[in-house]
Amino acid sequence: MNIGPFTRGATVRIRFQFLDAEDDPINPSSAELHLDFLTTDGRGERTVALTLDAGYWKYEWDSAEAEPGIVYGYVHTPPPVVSTMNLRFQLLSNLANAAARVVDV
């Protein structure tokens, strides 16, 4: 799934609904998101648990920890994995928001 682009430093709101093989919504016991992005040191990554809200699994990511570029993601249900999804989006920047800062989650 492609979303964005987003301005570097913005909060990226990620929302998923898991579907089974028949495209019916499912609500697993948990879900996890993995993000891979550029940093000043090369590549950064973040793995987080998603929260369930009104049938959707959600996470808000502060993109200020990343450098401009393509962010790759992968979300999945717990084993045995019933549903997965890949995503990617672009972070854009300009001179005013070009420098990364450390974000502690």
Describe the overall structure.
The two termini are 25 Å apart. The protein is elongated. The protein is mostly beta strands. The protein has a 5-stranded mixed β-sheet, with no helix packed on it. A 3-stranded antiparallel β-sheet has the order 2-8-7, with no helix packed on it. It is built from no helices and 10 strands. It has one domain (2-92): Sandwich (Immunoglobulin-like), CATH 2.60.40.
Which features would summarize this protein structure in a list?
105 residues; mainly beta; Immunoglobulin-like; five-stranded mixed β-sheet; three-stranded antiparallel β-sheet
**Proportion of residues in extended strands:** over 45%
User: In total, how many domains does the architecture comprise?
Assistant: 1
Measure the end-to-end span.
25 Å
Sheet having the most strands: 5 strands, mixed
User: pLDDT below 50 for ≥5 consecutive residues: which ranges?
Assistant: none
Give the SSE map.
Layout: E1 2-7, E2 11-16, E3 18-19, E4 25-26, E5 32-39, E6 42-49, E7 51-53, E8 56-62, E9 69-76, E10 84-92
Parallel strand pairs: 1-10
Antiparallel strand pairs: 2-8, 3-4, 5-6, 5-9, 7-8, 9-10
Give a quick precis of the structure:
The chain is mainly β and 105 residues long. 0% of the residues lie in helices and 56% in strands. The chain contains no helices and ten strands.
